[in-house]
Amino acid sequence: xxxxxxxxxxxxxxxxxxxxxxxxxxxxxxxxxxxxxxxxxxxxxxxxxxxxxxxxxxxxxxxxxxxxxxxxxxxxxxxxxxxxxxxxxxxxxxxxxxxxxxxxxxxxxxxxxxxxxxxxxxxxxxxxxxxxxxxxxxxxxxxxxxxxxxxxxxxxxxxxxxxxxxxxxxxxxxxxxxxxxxxxxxxxxxxxxxxxxxxxxxxxxxxxxxxxxxxxxxxxxxxxxxxxxxxxxxxxxxxxxxxxxxxxxxxxxxxxxxxxxxxxxxxxxxxxxxxxxxxxxxxxxxxxxxxxxxxxxxxxxxxxxxxxxxxxxxxxxxxxxxxxxxxxxxxxxxxxxxxxxxxxxxxxxxxxxxxxxxxxxxxxxxxxxxxxxxxxxxxxxxxxxxxxxxxxxxxxxxxxxxxxxxxxxxxxxxxxxxxxxxxxxxxxxxxxxxxxxxxxxxx
Length: 443
Fold this sequence. Notes:
- This protein is an all-alpha fold.
- The chain folds into 3 domains: 2-113 and 336-369, no CATH class; 118-324, no CATH class; 384-442.
- Helices cover 79% and strands 0% of the residues.
- The chain has helices at 2-16, 18-41, 48-76, 83-141, 147-167, 178-223, 228-252, 255-267, 279-311, 326-332, 338-349, 351-369, 380-414, 426-429, 435-442.
- Helix 2 (18-41) packs parallel to helix 4 (83-141) and helix 8 packs antiparallel against helix 9.
- The radius of gyration is 50 Å and the shape is rod-shaped.
- The model is unreliable at 417-433 and 435-443 (pLDDT under 50).
């Protein structure tokens, strides 16, 4: 009897929670429909009226479909007794859940975290543009790293020219001659190259500061209040300007010019004619100028190799800002918004928990009723209906007996002397029940 009482109580609880179950399903379906409407509205283009009605129709369809789907499952799945039918409905539930996620959950996530996802996209884009600006700035400043070598070479040539003129440190004869002229010429070329590189420094710094201003504006747009769509448009405009600054920095690099100038030092080397007053002095001047030529060639190779290393650095990749809608951003950055996705999916799939609860409760009820007799499974309503049916059958039997007795007496009075005919069995005397009596027995 304890099992019967337990099963009876479970059945009463299910009946009492019928209204609550419908209310829960309707509330969840309505909530999903509202967030689906917000997500759909961000995807549609056109007039406000068309967007409104299209979003409403889609969201209402989703709500109705969800309510009907979970209502069918919560009714039928707990009643399945064989494993095949239960597995079939579980497969249908899994398929329906996947369809619900596809048509509703990602739109719910877009409504819950769409603006944050777009801001995340803007923040990631800023990081990329910052890296591009730094790389372009570094590439442009690469040629400035050659300044110390160029300055040392220029100073060395100038010092040698001064020493040769004052003491004849190279030829042994002081005074201004061909060697001094050549050394002064080489020092002047190095000075020109140094001046060219120094002149590019200010241009590079101005471009870098302009790029930083654009980056600051873009960072402000990410965290600024207001509609994300308008901020995204302003962000795109700043991104275009920043792209132009980065391209300008790429073209500002002086490394190619340095490489050509370094090559000209060797290729364009023209030694003056020795102007010594004696053959011996002229020979020594030729020897010194040949040595200077070798030194210039070595300096030219060193500068060319250094410039080639600068030019070998990877170029800044071409980047174009692509605006994303809230729904697209939620999909791209789904891993950053797991709580929002969990909430959006839970709204749609929470009824699956109710289906599971009902399945467990019905299974427990069936286990409690398996060992009971038929009489033990009868409810008070079943007993009352049985008593009413018994009374109706008894009254009908009495009426049939009375009618049978009256018929027998009438036959005896019509044919005196003849014995009364034997009463037919009760089964043969039963007449069809009237429509009203049939309805009463059925109920």
